[in-house]
Amino acid sequence: MAEDKDFEYVRRFINGDEMAFNLLAGKYQQKIYWHARRMLGNHMDADEVTQEVLIVLYNKLKSFNFKSSLFTWIYRITATRSINQLNKRKVKRFLFLEDSDYDTLKDREDIVSNIENREKVDKLDRVLKELPAKQREVFIFRNFDELSYEEISEITGRSVGGLKANYFHALKKVTEMMDKNENE
Amino acid sequence: MKTNDEILKYLSGMLPEEKRREFELKLQKSDSLKRELEKTSAYLSELKALGSLQADTGYFENLLPALRSRLLPHKKKKSFRLYPGIAYMVPAALVAALFLFKPFGFNPFMRGTSTTSEFTREVSEMNDQTRSEVLGSLLENESSITQADVLPDNTAEAVENTMGEELFKGSDNKSQYLDTDELINSISADEADNVYQDMLHKKIL
């Protein structure tokens, strides 16, 4: 049903209705942002990825083939862009190209300003940061986006078996960290 | 298999159907296993709760208008940012290049001439005007270029020798560098007197 609605918006946008894009963006922007935010661990990078994904959506929506669901397509773009952003940051750090005030800026410009929420997000970031990118991705898709292995497989192009193995290792690391935190 | 691994495999959906049923039977019988599973599930629920946040709604309300302005065609600003990384890398690359070329006899101070014999041959093959220009320039910079760490091998010595030979070769060069005392002593008292009278007559003195 939701898929039919998405397809209707896409068709309207292809026929020139700009409002249909606004409706689609409004529906998915939070999902895009929070996926990127959990993957990247800060607002600045998540904001960049969210804007990039919406721009790609705007420019490429006309070539959408209606074979897969729209949310799979959007998540695929988001996941790829998030991994790219992570790699970009690694390269920048390696070459000392990162702005010196990057750490200050990424904390200052945050949409999570409430102290209680800030603590929550910091705690979650600390846990997720310890996971390698692929494990982190599966863990986020399973636990926060609540997607099935089949859906994640369609988004990432990886096998279900491989995803299960990634999730198992992620769970192991996460529980070990939580155990350690509890004992301290 | 460790108990914890078994629980994690169960939660990850990695256990095949048969093993899954076995594990669930074991779970009904073992309180410690049940507690362990509950603990792991509680960790996951805690993490999930950490993920459900109340964010500032203003950001999402302004996201699309901000994006629209980005989508509109506009002139790309030309800006120059001096990345600190590049600032480190450029001098490092230059120093590295200097070390790389050094073993191949490259010397930025001696363009095209790498050995003493080549230098001597080139100077001797020059016409008089070029030679005097080159030697004049060498004379001006003599103090700096004859330092052993600037010129390779015995080139510094060769430069001095060649300059010496060239300067005292030919009558024109000689006349320029004759000692004044030698000139005075080479004429007799009468000749000197004649010269003096001549200068008085011509109102030079």
Layout of helices and strands, plus pairs?
The complex is a heterodimer of chains A (184) and B (205).
Chain A: H1 2-14, H2 18-40, H3 43-60, H4 70-94, H5 102-108, H6 115-129, H7 133-143, H8 149-156, H9 160-183
Chain B: H1 3-12, H2 17-29, H3 31-51, H4 57-71, H5 84-101, H6 116-125, H7 128-140, H8 142-145, H9 155-167, H10 171-176, H11 180-185, H12 189-201
Helix pairs in contact in B: 1-3, 6-9
Structure at a glance:
The complex is a heterodimer of chains A (184) and B (205). Chain A has 184 residues and is mostly helical.
Keywords:
heterodimer, A: 184 residues, mainly alpha, globular, B: 205 residues, 12 helices, 69% helix
Radius of gyration of chain B: 46 Å
Give the strand content of chain A.
under 5%
- Estimated share of beta-strand residues of chain B: under 5%
Count the beta strands of chain B: 0
- The termini of chain B sit apart by 121 Å
| Element order of chain B: H for helix, E for strand | HHHHHHHHHHHH
What is the count of helical runs of chain B? 12
Which chain pair has the greatest contact? A-B, 40 and 36 residues
Give me the number of helical elements of chain A: 9
Count all strands of chain A and give the number: 0
Helix content of chain B: 55-70%
- Could you estimate the helical fraction of the residues of chain A in percent? over 70%
Oligomer: heterodimer
Helix- and strand-based class of chain A?
A: mainly alpha
Overall pLDDT confidence of chain A: 88
Question: Which word captures the global form of chain A?
Answer: globular
Q: Which of globular, elongated, flat, extended, rod-shaped describes the shape of chain B?
A: elongated
Task: Briefly note the structural class of the backbone of chain B.
Answer: mainly alpha
Rounded mean pLDDT score of chain B: 73
SSE series of chain A: HHHHHHHHH
Largest sheet of chain A at a glance? Answer: none
